[in-house]
Amino acid sequence: MLAKAFLLSSFFLPLVVCSLAAPPAPAPEAPADDESPTGFIRAQCGATRYPDLCFTSLSGYASAVQHSPLQLACAAANVTLSRLRSLRAHVSALRSSGTGAGSEAAAALSDCEETLDAAGSLVSRSAGELRGLESLQGSEAAWRVSNAQTWMSAAMTNEDTCADGLESVSGGDVKVDVSGQVRGVKQFTSNALALVNRLAGGR
């Protein structure tokens, strides 16, 4: 299972992210003459499944992103990892407090905590593949982008596993709460994957 294969305790490891301080990639998409960094982000987010969420969550990074698809994908990965860590902490707190202590709910929360931890590790690995990418070209750059796609996609699989486990719980506030938050995090991950996929198309 991916959750076990990649259980690297992302919640407790140092945050592994791609830098937003690096210069843009050598050949970023050419912006329109009147396109601001914010306009660039809005246009890029139009290719994601949740464009409004994409824009609202990433527009604050406009000064770092400028017109770089790579920096935008980095920002999306960082935001996704932050959201995953927050959700993992929430699930852990629910378990510790004994909320929804029925056997079904307790087992589902335990599995979710594990799979969300694994998802965080995978997003962290995806972000790590993007670090320093602006200095690479050719097959090495393509290989790194492909790895980033693989890890981000695998993170979504782990999120799906958490959601599927909650389906077996018969109702209750915990199920509604965690299921809703998992759906929200999956939207961030989906957007991050879409922006990483755009890097593949541009190389």
UniProtKB/TrEMBL annotation:
GO terms for molecular function: enzyme inhibitor activity. Keywords: Signal. InterPro entries: Invertase/methylesterase_inhib (IPR035513), Pectinesterase_inhib_dom (IPR006501), PME_Inhibitor (IPR051955). Residues 36-195 form the Pectinesterase inhibitor domain. SUPFAM superfamilies: Plant invertase/pectin methylesterase inhibitor. Residues 1-21 form the signal peptide. Pfam families: PMEI. NCBIfam families: PME_inhib. This is 21 kDa protein-like. It comes from Canna indica.
